[in-house]
Amino acid sequence: MAPGGSILSSRFWVGAVLAKKSIGPVRREFVPWENSDHPPFIEFRGVTKKFGEFVAVRNLSLKIYEKEFFALLGGSGCGKTTLMRMLAGFETPTSGQIFLDGQDLAGIPPYRRPSNMMFQSYALFPHMNVEKNIAFGLKQDSMPAREIEARVSEMLRLTKLEQFAQRKPHQLSGGQRQRVALARSLAKRPKVLLLDEPLGALDRKLREETQFELMNLQEELEMTFLIVTHDQEEAMTVADRIAVMDKGELVQVATPAEIYEAPNSKFVADFIGDVNLIEAKVTGKSDAGTRLVSVVDGFVIDSDQETEAGLGETVWYAIRPEKVRIAQGRREEGQVNQIDGLVWDIAYLGDVSCIHSKVGEDDHDTIRATFANISRMVENPITWDDEVVLSFNRDAGVILKG
Amino acid sequence: MTRGPTWFNITSLVLGFSFLYLPIVLLVIYSFNESRLVTVWGGFSTKWYASLLQNEQLLDAAWVTLRVAFASATIATVLGTLAALILVRSGRFMGRSLFSGMIFAPLVMPEVILGLSLLLLFVAMGTARGFWTVMLAHTTFAMCYVAVVVQSRLVGFDKSIEEAAEDLGCPPVKTFFLITLPIILPGVIAGWMLAFTLSLDDLVIASFTTGPGATTLPMKIYSQVRLGVTPEINAVCTILVGLVTICVIAASLVTKRQQVQRERDERAAFGADG
After folding, report:
1. How far is B129 from chain A (nearest CA, A)?
2. Does residue A173 sit at the B interface (CB-CB below 8 Å)?
3. Pure H helices in chain B
């Protein structure tokens, strides 16, 4: 599924799932992508898009399934918006094909495609009131007036906009405008709803609320949603699967938990969440796992993961800060997965604390450990310049090739 | 800090406005002059307005001017709007800067040159000069003003609004009339009014391109003034000033009313919130 060689990590994790272990909580039993016979609903087949010399999307293939909530995630200029705009019909692929529900979309103009889009700027029609904005798409289909009325009032109810029906967009708050845009794009019951950074303009609280509303709507309407976002938290909250994009290519396509716990590259590990990347040499390989020795400080890492890298090769060991335990003291002689450190920086964030410990000569050689502040008072708290020992489990990190 | 206007402020205000409006005020006052001599006050009278109604020549000229202005403003608005659309929308294409330069050149081109070149063209084409040639000439130079005005309106236009319309199933041409045009309408109307007034008071280009039977009002006034200013001319000009004033006031009243209406709507809507 994941291009660029789905190294051992995915194989490993599939194994873990079979062994009644799961990565993260199971949100719903919906995994059409694991069945290779399941026909995709949207399919990009070798799609390339060039703007002059600039390659926005490079030979990209992707399958999205019916009723899936799919997220395209990446930094600005990674090609995610271009990919969505090609699906909507606003851009034409330089080469490759796009299929929607079995139909080749080539040559079909935007106004005849069975998808609707919610724009980043909302793009509401400023000279029409909320009701007319929502009804616009239905009128284009020459739907009977009575049905339009019924559908509009249904959309108003669904997005809790009833009392704003007669207002013009300039008389609405940002959150209300966002809901009008959503209602307008849902009104035609499109086969796919495309969401282009839909929540970017909202403040944090409202954004979180809306994310859950979006998820509920998607389940209620049983529609396929495709969301483009640069906000990894947003993608992880709403999506069934996430495609991480970089420089016009897919880096990894997987569920949020897999993306977070089993990133397939340094880029994904670094892009999603916070991560400690430890440069290390492979010193031992067996069926039970891999042994690494850190380039800095020479501590030994014992991992239950296998790696394609040969003996003596340099790899990266990626470990999330919340999987690193921190305690005062020094490591026990001969123990693996323990690192001596010196507290360098402390960040108290309320719910969690984050401690940066120096493990090498260089100031940059630090390892972050976070822990939940489960009690209000702490006896003998960790403080600056404390000698600490950082430890972690065998299955805590992921081995990544440079 | 002093409150209220100082003597310096009042003086500069009076001087400034006198400079702007004294000539017009004089013109209006002398249009009600009883005396035939323009510079000598002979008592109040409206007889020049009455005699104006008898002056077929002036009335003809006024009618020609209005027709020319209306037609040329309308055509210039259509063409200018299209030009503005192309300039703003089409992105980069071969010769874009040349094209935009060529559209705006008539703005700074001396009218004499524009008029002369149009005259040469009409002569070369063997066109009979008259109403149509004046109208075409006015369209030519008014178009670029319209393009400038509409362009400024289009620059702030969020293109995704049009994309949203197309995405919802509206074909491009229909999108233009349902979405784009209503949004840029204030710019288009402003462009039309500008073109209308430009055509109304143009003397130079009209003189070059007109022919027998199509004398515009400014031309008529100018030729009469050379023979001596009559109070009738003052009366005509006063009527023109009055017309323009009424137009401006009406326009501002309409906008003001819309604004008031909108504010009332907003209050009502927020009231309904509870």
Report:
1. 44
2. no
3. 7-31, 47-54, 56-89, 96-108, 111-125, 131-155, 159-167, 172-175, 181-200, 204-209, 217-226, 231-272
Which element (helix H / strand E) includes A226?
Answer: strand A224-229
Contact between residue A137 and residue A184 where contact means Cβ atoms under 8 Å apart: yes
For residue B90 the two structure tokens come to 């089409």
Å between B172 CA and nearest CA of chain A: 8
Model-level pTM? 0.79
Q: Which residues of A touch B158 (CB under 8 A)?
A: 121, 123
Interchain contact, A119 vs B182, CB within 8 Å: no
Asked if the ipTM is above 0.85, the reply is no
The answer to whether A330 and A377 are in contact (CB under 8 A) is no
Q: What is the pLDDT along chain B (274 residues), one digit of tens a residue?
A: 556 778 898 999 999 999 988 888 888 888 888 887 777 788 888 888 888 888 888 888 888 888 999 999 999 999 999 988 888 887 777 777 887 788 788 888 888 998 999 999 999 998 888 889 999 999 988 898 889 888 888 887 888 999 999 999 999 999 999 999 988 888 888 888 888 888 888 889 999 998 887 888 888 888 888 887 777 888 888 888 887 788 777 766 766 666 676 666 556 555 444 3
Domain A8-24+31-114+190-270 in this protein, CATH class: alpha beta
Cβ neighbours for A354, distance < 8 A, ≥ 6 positions apart:
A321, A346, A347, A368, A369, A370
Side-chain half-sphere CA neighbours of B22 within 13 A: 6
Q: What is the DSSP letter of B176?
A: I
Structure tokens given for A356: 């940066």
Residue A91 backbone dihedrals phi, psi, to 5 degrees? -130, 150
User: CATH: 1.10.10.10, 2.40.50.140, 3.90.226.10, 2.60.120.10. Which one for A274-401?
Assistant: 2.40.50.140
Query: CA–CA separation, B114 vs B221, rounded Å?
Result: 22
d(CA A5, CA A250): 11
Q: Residues in chain B whose beta carbon is closer than 8 A to a beta carbon of chain A?
A: 158, 160-161, 163-172, 179, 182-183, 262, 265-266, 269, 272-273
How far CA A284 is from CA of A12, A281, A293, A294, B30, in Å, comes to 18, 9, 9, 13, 109
Quote the CA–CA distance of A247 and A82 in Å, as a whole number.
Answer: 12
Distance CA A320, CA A106 (A): 43
Short-list B147, B156, B135, B268, CA closest to B214: B135
Q: Is A127 on the interface with B (CB under 8 A)?
A: yes
Domain coordinates of chain A in residue numbers? 8-24+31-114+190-270, 274-401
Which residues lie closer than 8 Å to A378 by C-beta, 6 or more apart?
Answer: none
